[in-house]
Amino acid sequence: MVVLIDTVSPNQVRPRHPEKVNRPDAKSPPKPDWIRVRAPTSGGFSNTHKIVKENGLVTVCEEAGCPNIGECWSKKHATFMIMGDTCTRACAFCNVKTGLPGALDKNEPEHIAIAVKKLGLAHVVITSVDRDDLDDGGAEHFAQTIAAIRADCPTTTIEILTPDFLRKDGALEKVVAAKPDVFNHNLETVPSRYLTVRPGARYFHSIRLLQRVKEIDPTIFTKSGIMVGLGEERHEVLQVMDDLRSADVDFLTIGQYLQPTLKHHAVMRYVTPEEFKGYETVAYTKGFLMVSASPLTRSSHHAGEDFARLQAARAAAGR
Question: Residue 132: CB partners within 8 Å, gap ≥ 6?
């Protein structure tokens, strides 16, 4: 899931995960000027916050302390996180709480749909915690949420950012059958960093998951993202691009990893805006329809505008 974070207000980054350790044992370098953002203060931000709380919803914007929350919420854009606020995995980069989750809220899909309608969203992003405790990893809950939004907001386009459904036979097929407009699943990092950054996942399973979406329904846009600054080498990032293109992924996002707390993986390096621009240029030459690469790029940032551009790019490419 998407969990790159920064401190945007004094009370937003909450120390959690006492069981996690800072891997590798290193101190993050000083934060450069280009990574800083303004604290949220607008009336639009307050209105979005009110709608989210009134409907008892969880957002990844808050749980992950996203640096873009001020900008997005001021425009009434929020990324909803379904199936609770507790994840069954403990990735070294992630600020979402880890533990044994509670039962699913059967009313959550309808509450999400109500919030989408109140916010007047033309495009909505739905993500979730990992739910390895469920037989289908939460696939049916995703499908029900998509169906509820379709019923209440038929013109709203839907983007989902899913877990990997590892060892959950038939789960992916349930989600794809619900026909989201964009299916996003993040690789998060390069293969060599998985043991320290994303130990509960398997790189090639995630690649295969994205490839399988296209095999089942070629009309669905596929999307994936990685963080940089975790100790990866440039050639490894380029190899990830090739692997994603081999799975026919349409949209690639690359953003700077930001350390949530001192208990999490350290930032090994701040990648410069010029390097991000270089990654974007190379990615387009490899055949992606859309690429977003910058220090503050996040999977759901500008998702609505990006979806319109993605549609236009597909039409121009004749895919």
Answer: 88, 89, 166, 200
Integer Cα distance of 184 and 127 in angstroms: 9
| Interaxial angle between packed helices 273-285 and 234-246, expressed in degrees from 0 to 180 and rounded to the nearest 10 | 30
* CATH number of the domain where residue 91 is located: 3.20.20.70
- The partner residues of 124 in beta bridges, in order of sequence, read 158
How many other β-carbons are positioned within 10 Å of the β-carbon of residue 100?
A: 7
Q: What is the full per-residue pLDDT of the chain (319 aa) written as tens digits?
A: 333 333 333 333 333 443 444 444 567 788 888 776 555 555 566 666 566 666 666 665 554 555 555 555 555 566 788 999 899 999 999 888 899 999 999 999 999 999 899 888 889 999 999 999 999 999 999 999 999 999 999 999 999 999 999 999 999 999 999 999 999 999 999 999 999 999 999 999 999 999 999 999 999 999 999 999 999 999 999 999 999 999 999 999 999 999 988 899 999 999 999 999 999 999 999 999 999 999 988 887 677 789 999 999 999 998 8
Distance CA 55, CA 242 (A): 42
> 29 is written with which tokens?
């370098």
- In angstroms, rounded to a whole number, what is the distance separating the alpha carbons of residues 175 and 151? 16
Helix (H, G, I), strand (E, B) or coil at 66: coil
Question: H helices of 166-265, where?
Answer: 171-177, 194-197, 203-216, 234-246
73 located within any domain? yes
Which residues span the domain enclosing 50? 37-314
Nearest in space to 300 (alpha carbons), one of 8, 56, 75, 54: 75
How far apart (Å, rounded) are the C-alpha atoms in residues 49 and 3? Answer: 19
Could you tell me the pTM of the whole model?
Answer: 0.84
Q: How many domains does the chain have?
A: 1
Separation of first and last alpha carbons in the chain: 27
In angstroms, the CA 213 to CA 269 distance is 34
For 97-233, where are the alpha helices, taking DSSP H only? Answer: 108-119, 139-152, 171-177, 194-197, 203-216
User: For residue 11, is it within any domain?
Assistant: no
Tell me, yes or no, whether 63 lies in a domain: yes
